[in-house]
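> agent: user asked for a holo structure of the chain below bound to magnesium ion. Plan: (1) validate sequence alphabet, (2) canonicalize SMILES, (3) run complex prediction with ligand conditioning, (4) return tokens. Step 1... ok. Step 2... ok. Step 3 dispatched.
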Amino acid sequence: MDRLIFHVDVNSAFLSWTAAHQVLVLGQGRDLRQIPSVIAGDREDRRAVVLAKSIPAGRCGVHTGEALFQAQRKCPDLVVEKPDYPLYVSASRAFIALLRRYAPAVEQYSIDEAFLDMTGVPDAEDDPVGFAGRLRDQVWEELGFTVNVGVSVNRLLAKMAGDFSKPNQVHTLFPEEIPEKLWPLPVRRLFLIGPATERKLHYYGIRTVGDLARTDREFLRRQLHRQGEVLWNYAHGRSGSAVTETPALNKGYGNSVTTPFDVTDPATARRVLLSLCETVTARMRSDGQTGALVTVQIRDRDFTDRSHQLALASFTDVTEEIWRGACRALEELWDGESPLRQLGVQVSRLAQGCPRQYNVFDGHRYDRLARLDTAVDAIRAKYGEGSILRACFAGSPIPPMSGGLHPERRTGVTRPLPPG
Ligand SMILES: [Mg+2]
């Protein structure tokens, strides 16, 4: 029995939500969606990147994720609006609430995307495209922004369909349409293929999704291991995962931050890592997870990324213990002076309720630290994130907790689509 899955994705979410608010709530005549415009951070802030763009801005060659000054060079009369995260959180809630009226199972996938399991809904099964179109129109009428809806039999194909032409479109990608609609696309468009994997595939002469689908599966398994097999399945449109109401557990917990200045000394770098470890481990503790592998990632001024992993002595969720591991990983990765502009920490190899392995050196010290973390978590939950901070952050330009875009968003779970 085939399932019927919709992927619903807000078009240029941050820009659409700011525009809808300006037009519908503030009564402004100008609609950002009709003119070259972007959502980006402060003009003065070197971290400012384009978070969302209007279609007219896209026509000038502006890309999401590029530096604001580059976008302004391409498009001199670009209108720049700052992000409004509290607005986005409430728009997202209204969006998901509307979807729940139409679908028996809704899985929010990111702030502006959700999977809907429409299996067994008679109107949707009789005419999936008509139903998806009515859903799209309802979002526009009630909430004032456009969405793309992708329709298929699993999440992978529905998501790929939702990424076809935008905005305000309904697309299907049923298994029988794969050769015609999916295979001509460049491999880069396939879910989970980033620049590094794309380069590897190009090296083997695999340029389109169809090339990948026709490649010998054993060959891919030998060259790319498990990922090779997953990608081969993806190219054939196979993804077994069902839409679940409860989000699956994270494979890892990570955060990264672009620093407002170049980091050129180890003390500052360690402090940035600590502020990242604070948010990462707080999320782990609230999910009851411990981890045994810490990865540090750094990006230097010419946007080269490097990372290094370090296995911890025990499964842990203790901020200081993970931070010490991160500092050792950083030492092996970085010369301590070449300027860094981004740092990240990830904890993986997760386990739930794993007993600590004690050794003679730590002398149960981490039990005390764990109690300290619990107390700090409770204070922050009650009085807010800023209510308590480590002394080293007092008066420092580094925030005591880093990573993610905004405190409200840090609580949101984002995770990769489960393979298969
Ligand atoms: Mg979107």
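> agent: step 4 complete. Summary for user: Residues 242-250, 404-420 have pLDDT under 50 and may be disordered. Residues 11 and 262 are 34 Å apart (CA to CA).
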